[in-house]
User: What shape does this take?
Amino acid sequence: MSHPFVGKTGVIADILSLKLDRIKAGQLTNSLDRRFLFTGPPGVGKSALAAWLAHKIAGHPINVDFRMGTAVSVEAVRDWVMNGCYRPLQGDFTVRFIDELDTTPATAVTELRGYLDTLPASVLFVATTNRAVADLAEPLQTRFQIWKFDPVPPADIAALLRERHPELSIVVVNSIAQKCAGNVRAALIDAAADRDFLAYRNSLPAAA
Assistant: This one.
């Protein structure tokens, strides 16, 4: 599959890409096959993968409803329920995407539980959290397919950095990959800083 993800995140991307193709083809009708929860440490690509999958199945950006958990209100969920019978004007699926599901207000959790239990056939629901599933509100713990993400191995991070930043030396790339403790986002930030430092150093006049 063609995607930008590495490590276990890349494996999950491959598996879910096939699953989305089957959903779009109408082969998976159980709503549990359309309710994904990504859980794991920060910086491993959970939110990026959720967004990538969302746009892949939605077919049009307007069909993706993205919210941080703190922005999920009772009114928002009730609006989802009210409009559940309508299919999108472009494409076949609407995607509800909640980042940091653990921050969803308690007042909205009961409404969200009911919505998930009766998820419309034209909706894919994907959520992310850095917390363990057992730390979520109890009604949310058993209403998703759980996909557990792991820290990305240094070798995979180094390979990604070499592809993104060929101007950096192998020594620098390997050092970043080792120090970031499996956090791809942190590695990319460090690599960008080193790239800019290298560009600045190369712009200085050569010593006489």
Observations:
- The chain has two domains: 7-148, 154-203.
- The chain has a mean pLDDT of 93.
- Residues 7-148 form a domain with the Rossmann fold fold (CATH 3.40.50.300).
